[in-house]
Design goal:
This protein is globular. α8 (228-240) crosses α10 and α8 (228-240) packs antiparallel against α13. A hairpin with a 5-residue loop joins β8 and β9. Strands 15-12-14-13-18-20-16 form a seven-stranded antiparallel β-sheet, with helices on both faces. The chain has a five-stranded antiparallel β-sheet with strand order 5-6-10-8-9. Strands 1-2-4-3 form a four-stranded mixed β-sheet. It starts with a helix and ends in a 36-residue tail after the last helix. The protein has helices at 3-14, 23-26, 49-62, 114-121, 140-146, 153-156, 190-194, 228-240, 253-262, 283-299, 311-322, 324-327, 347-361, 389-406, 425-428, 431-444, and strands spanning 19-20, 42-44, 66-69, 86-89, 96-100, 105-108, 126-127, 163-169, 175-179, 203-210, 212-213, 217-225, 247-252, 273-281, 304-308, 334-337, 340-341, 365-369, 375-376, 378-382. The protein folds into four domains: 3-89, Uridine Diphospho-n-acetylenolpyruvylglucosamine Reductase, domain 2, CATH 3.30.43.10; 96-213, 2-Layer Sandwich (Uridine Diphospho-n-acetylenolpyruvylglucosamine Reductase, domain 3); 217-322, Alpha-Beta Plaits (2-Layer Sandwich), CATH 3.30.70.2190; 332-406, Alpha-Beta Plaits, CATH 3.30.70.2740. It has 480 residues and is α+β, with helices and mostly antiparallel strands. The longest helix has 18 residues, at 389-406. It has 16 helices and 20 strands. It is 34% helix and 19% strand. The structure holds flavin-adenine dinucleotide. Flavin-adenine dinucleotide is lined by residues 32-33, 67-75, 78-79, 90, 110, 132-134, 138-139, 141-143, 145-146, 148-150, 198-199, 203-204, 325, 414-415, 451. Flavin-adenine dinucleotide (FAD) is lined by residues 32-33, 67-75, 78-79, 90, 110, 132-134, 138-139, 141-143, 145-146, 148-150, 198-199, 203-204, 325, 414-415, 451.
Length: 480
Amino acid sequence: MKKKRLIEGLQRIVGKGYVIHHPDDLLAYEYDGSVDRGTATAVVFPSSTVQVSQVVALAHREGIPVVPRGAGTGLSGGAIAAEGSIQIALTRMRSILEVDAANRLAVVEPGLVNLDLSTSVAPQGLYYAPDPSSQGACTIGGNVAENSGGPHCLRYGVTTNHVLALEVVLEDGSIVWIGDRYRGGPGYDLVGAFVGSEGMMGIVTKAVVRLLPRPESVSTLMAVFPEMDQASAAVSRVIGSGLLPTAMEMMDRLSIKAVETAMGYGYPQNAGAVLLIEVDGIEEEVSESAASVKALCRAEGASEMRAATEASARARLWAGRKGALGALGALAPNYYLVDGVVPRTQLLQVLRRVGEVSQGSGFPIANVFHAGDGNLHPCILFDERQAGHTPRVLAAGGEILKACVEVGGALTGEHGVGLEKKAYMPLLFTNADLEAMLRLRRAFAPSGLMNPGKVFPGGPSCGEGFRPASVVKADQGMWV
Ligand SMILES: Cc1cc2nc3c(=O)[nH]c(=O)nc-3n(C[C@H](O)[C@H](O)[C@H](O)COP(=O)(O)OP(=O)(O)OC[C@H]3O[C@@H](n4cnc5c(N)ncnc54)[C@H](O)[C@@H]3O)c2cc1C
């Protein structure tokens, strides 16, 4: 199909003002939060499920790949346009369609910003638990596609634990509902299969999500440690004691420096690491748990404990953590964030390995991460304008991912595989494992036109320096 005819077809569906196709305008949509880039033929902004369905059906008839896009905060290249594709940006579909407080659920459109949901149901004493640090920008659709986590997912679980049902547009334009508004419907757990499918099985156009009651009492603690080793040991000790805090987040010396340089929140500048720990529940339980956490941290060498229970004081303690990734800009023009998972008991060992990778590669690495989940986020600081730095940084990231897998961990805790980590999938999965996943994907998207080129190894990617021992072969002429 000629580009002109395609654009006119898209404009007839969504309206002339909602199709971007000039190369200058497309630039704003060629990237997400990762290091990958890709330019679509057009970006469309539908306002309803029917419009999404019509765009997808048009693309399907013409054999054109489509790439769903939320806010573009993804950190694994999931929303990057495949060659010749149409990007479908869901950001105009951002309404809360229903709040059913009695049944503690909400029906929302996919472009709704995560934080807007909690803010809007706060007067009813409710909130939406998964809280990525990007929650002021990222969308529920993106969260569903990535099975996103966040600081408070340690106790309450990640996105998949909070999605009840989804309206999905499949690659031929058909509209289906999967899941059940009230858990327990018969049939396969298709929501479980779909959440985390990285936009490759269909486009979420509505989501029914759980809401939780706001806890009666919350206490936020900051434990200050001379070294990261002690902070890591404290994480294992607290969880090993049987306590399950809502959040346990770690920041190392370099990330504290970034936060203080950029924002000056009063974090302890001489610390080797801080842990932000939150406990919630009924008042008596919270004060008891907070006292136990303090004692355990002190026993592991915490030199100082700060505590806050009042909302604004707690927000101040959190502000540095929530703004940490942005603050890294004070130290370097670019960062490459590695998202590996390790068993909590291996934190210490793998963080030391991260230090070795930093020394060996010559790039500073700041660590700011969900320590309670064992979900590491080493941020490799660099300047992409320096010739040859990007491939070296990606290779250093690969070393860290391998170290995570070697101790029984995984390639991603919450950011997805996308383009970024697909070449590493054979580290974790056999060909048969990957083929099984591919078959599931084909059940939803048989032509492979839905967000092709992600997750499964093979084809061009950022991790090309790494040659997997074996790759899944795509069917002849098929997108994967
Ligand atoms: C500063 C910062 C902090 C972050 N902190 C966290 C964190 O704590 N935890 C965490 O998990 N992540 C975090 N992230 C990563 C990112 O915010 C999440 O992955 C988020 O869910 C992406 O949402 P998005 O709307 O930006 O999606 P995008 O980046 O636009 O897309 C992400 C993926 O979702 C797909 N997609 C988008 N919308 C739909 C839809 N409606 N239907 C189907 N597929 C769709 C895309 O195709 C793509 O594969 C952080 C990112 C940044 C920049």
